[in-house]
Amino acid sequence: MMTTLDPADLQAVWLTLKLASVTTCLLLLIATPLAWWLAHSRKWYKGPVAAVVALPLVLPPTVLGFYLLLLMGPHGMVGELTTALGLGRLPFTFYGLVIGSVVFSMPFAVQPIQNAFEAIGQRPLEVAATLRASRLDRFFSVALPLARPGFLTAIILAFAHTVGEFGVVLMLGGNIDGETRVLSVAIYNHVEAMEYNSAHLLAGGMVLFSFVVLLSLYLAGGKLSKVTK
Amino acid sequence: MNSIRAQFKMQLDSFSLDATFDAPATGVTALFGPSGSGKTTLLRCIAGLERVQGSLHVNGETWQDDKTFVPVHKRPLGYVFQEASLFPHLSVRANLEYGYKRIAPGERKVQLEQVVEWLGLSHLIERGDPMQLSGGERQRVAIGRALLTSPRILLMDEPLSALDTNSKQEILPYLERLHRELNIPVLYVSHAMEEVARLADHLVLLEKGRVIASGSLHETLARLDLPTAHFDDAGAVIEAAVAGHDEPYHLTRLDFSEGALWVGKVEQPLGTTVRARILARDVSVATQMPQATSISNILSGMITEIRDEGPDKLMLRIKIGESQVLLSRITRRSHDQLGLFVGREVFAQVKSVALMA
């Protein structure tokens, strides 16, 4: 007995992919300069900043979600700001989920990129400087290409981690059809309702999809590194 | 105007640099000293890779003083690091062109084809992965990459020290060729006397972060008050011209301003200037012209300085004619038996001459 995906499930799949893509893009924009700073700064507050970035690794997602909810809520700092700006409140919206996911997956993006920057060391950048490359030029022509494996890892981890997130979503976004009901929540609903077939379809699809994404990225990564070697 | 005037001061826990020197911005100036003497740090300060208190004027331009600090990428210099440090993500050609592309077209005085010819890179330039090259090949590409920025000064930080002996011998002729054919002043950091004697015209001696002497290679190496005179391979350098061959015996005569030396046959054409290095331990002295001796190079001169070298040895400085100097290391007993003193005429017997070009 085959079950097909009902429109609500399809919407959940689409929403999840959208959330993961937006989150990954935002994370690359935020994590790259942050990782660069962490890799090169000698400031005393580098340690505390690194610890804050790594917090989501050890915090239960519900704890993170709870504080984000308070922060974005009507009496939270972010909430007051968004209300004052006329943006309304963020919890229980897609954008609230995006913010939650960015915070939640931050260490998975920052750490591989930071490690890659640190592995490059100062020497290639110094060489580029003696070859007349300005600071920005050195970053784009030397640091970024040499850190490519780190970026690839960051993209895979951030994307996969966002696709799989559940706790933060539930705390922040709840279960609104078409707005905040992502795949993991949909699966949870099906299981709660004893709809195991639908749950199987979504869960199995997740497994397959994740495998295909990872495989193609690894294959592409292998090819890329061969070309540049 | 054609000079490098540098003065740097830096204080770290375990190391202090307080170096001042003037060097002509022509030919090769060696920054020479034992490891830990601060020569690499000094070179990095000159490049702007380290920012310490001080001042630096190159060819009349201010690169650093109390108010100015020209960033590295705006200094018209080339820098060759100890390890070739080629960019692994770029092909050999892209490595060579990295700096070339970043200078204004009007300032590109050195062209890719020239560099490829000078450094023998024609079979390397189409290679994709620079990491597949041998150590010596990589360093040649790195030198070419630096030259292609048409630098007004070339800084080299022990460019041979990371290489094995064969690769060193492979690169040295290229460096000598650059020295002869390119009109770019070079600052060359080294702790290897052989390289310095071979390449340098001017010597800046460093010890514990301080400049202890600076002057022409000939004069500085001939100074007995400097540590260089007490190395096992202390010696004098003489520039001479290939003047003739003794074909049956496979010998070549080298003429210099004050005399001539016979050496094993060399391939260079007549008239070529070569450098001969004569180690102090290879020079013995006699008070009369030796008769019936197997030594073919005997130069007459006068002792101008005698200095103690440990309990059993002495170092003599012997002036040959007006401008040349030889060093000779002899035992104290020989000194006493021959009755040597400053001002005495002697015959210097040269047992061996190392040709360096």
Architecture blueprint of SSEs:
The complex is a heterodimer of chains A (about 230) and B (about 350).
Chain A: H1 7-40, H2 46-58, H3 61-72, H4 77-84, H5 94-120, H6 123-130, H7 135-146, H8 148-163, H9 167-172, H10 183-192, H11 196-228
Chain B: E1 3-11, E2 16-24, E3 28-32, H1 39-47, E4 53-58, E5 61-64, E6 77-80, H2 92-100, H3 112-118, H4 135-147, E7 153-157, H5 165-181, E8 186-190, H6 193-199, E9 202-207, E10 210-216, H7 217-221, E11 235-246, E12 251-256, E13 259-264, E14 273-279, E15 283-286, E16 297-309, E17 313-320, E18 324-331, H8 332-338, E19 345-350, E20 354-355
Parallel strand pairs in B: 3-8, 3-9, 6-7, 7-8
Antiparallel strand pairs in B: 1-2, 1-4, 4-5, 9-10, 11-12, 11-14, 12-13, 14-20, 15-19, 16-17, 16-19, 17-18
Written description of the protein model:
The complex is a heterodimer of chains A (229) and B (357). Chain A has 229 residues and is mainly α. Chain A has one domain (17-40, 59-223): MetI-like fold (Orthogonal Bundle). Chain A is built from 11 helices and no strands. Chain A has helices at residues 7-40, 46-58, 61-72, 77-84, 94-120, 123-130, 135-146, 148-163, 167-172, 183-192, 196-228. The longest helix of chain A is centred in the first third of the chain and has 34 residues, at 7-40. The radius of gyration of chain A is 20 Å and the shape is globular. Chain B is α+β, with helices and mostly antiparallel strands and 357 residues long. Chain B is 21% helix and 37% strand. In chain B, the strands form 4 sheets. Chain B has a 6-stranded mixed beta sheet, sandwiched between helices. A 5-stranded antiparallel beta sheet of chain B has the order 13-12-11-14-20. A 5-stranded antiparallel beta sheet of chain B has the order 15-19-16-17-18. In chain B, α4 (135-147) packs parallel to α5. The longest helix of chain B is centred in the middle third of the chain and has 17 residues, at 165-181. Chain B is globular. The mean pLDDT of chain B is 90.
